[in-house]
Amino acid sequence: MADSQLKQCQWNIRSSQYLGEISALCFLHLPSHLSSFPFLLSGTGSQVLLYDLESSMMIKSFQIFEGIRVHGLICSLLDNTTLACKVVVCGEKRVKSFNLTFELVSKSNTQSEFCVDLCLIHSLPRFTHWVLDVLFLKDHCLAIGCSDNSVHVWDMLKSSLVLQVPSPDYSLESHLST
């Protein structure tokens, strides 16, 4: 094969973001003196997007997964003194917890803007079945519901599984595999 033909046959493979439709939504209420409208977290593709609903603007985009779509998204209550909250994102068989922090920065004497940061706290071990829902239990535990109808309780402080409850009911998944 000639060099010119070989050059035409080479592939240009590169990684890029997974684009997709909105698959998860969560409101985040800031103190009323900072914003009269809630902020909106939106899962789309493998990213979480943060919107300021008062200005109708996207503030920031956060890459959460590589090649995995965001399926669920929850936020803890915002700590009004630190302007921080916990955010938990799930996709396929993965769950990640983050700390979302806001800082109000003055641009001038009359204008301020929010600086936002999302820091990974923990990436839970991969589950054997798809994660369908996640809820906060108390201050430091997560209830994780999976597609085999099992529920797992994860302690975020100890980074360990506290409880796993299998379901006696058959799931759609078990019917399809037989």
TrEMBL record:
InterPro entries referenced in this protein's UniProt entry, alphabetically: tRNA_Anticodon_Mtase-Reg (IPR051973), WD40/YVTN_repeat-like_dom_sf (IPR015943), WD40_repeat_dom_sf (IPR036322), WD40_rpt (IPR001680)
Entry keyword Repeat: yes
Spans traversing the lipid bilayer: none
Keyword tRNA processing in annotation: yes
Location within or outside the cell: Cytoplasm
GO-annotated biological processes: tRNA methylation
Keywords attached to this entry: Cytoplasm, Repeat, tRNA processing, WD repeat
Coiled-coil region(s): none
Cellular-component GO terms for this entry: cytoplasm
PANTHER family: WD REPEAT PROTEIN (PTHR14344), WD REPEAT-CONTAINING PROTEIN 6 (PTHR14344:SF3)
The family this protein is said to belong to: Belongs to the WD repeat WDR6 family.
Name used for this protein in its record: Anaphase-promoting complex subunit 4 WD40 domain-containing protein
Protein source organism: Gossypium tomentosum (Hawaiian cotton)
